[in-house]
Design a protein that fits this description.
single chain, globular, five-stranded mixed sheet, alpha+beta, YaeB-like fold, 2 helices
């Protein structure tokens, strides 16, 4: 399985999350995609994978899967209950 991160995910989202105190690594993103606590579909039809980052927050990763290539589109922190409760 090969992971490709969009420029948006690498240049915008990871540094933005770090500025707000969330140390999210590419390794953590890959782990969540491989073994999500929750999964779903975004409003645009992309797959999502989610896991806890603390007791009140989740990391939500939006990605596309084509054959053996996973393209990470974006990621964000959300409060618990916003996404995992809809699955």
């Amino acid at each position: 399985m090969k992971f490709v991160f969009t420029k948006h995910a690498i240049k915008d989202k990871l540094p933005e999350l770090e500025r707000f105190g969330w140390k999210i690594t590419k390794t953590k993103v890959k782990r969540i995609i491989k073994n999500p606590r929750w999964h779903g579909v975004s409003k645009h039809g992309e797959e999502t994978a989610m896991d806890l980052v603390d007791a009140k927050h989740i990391l939500r990763v939006v990605f596309d899967r084509k054959d053996d290539i996973i393209k990470v589109i974006t990621l964000h922190i959300a409060r618990r209950g916003k996404y995992e409760s809809t699955l």
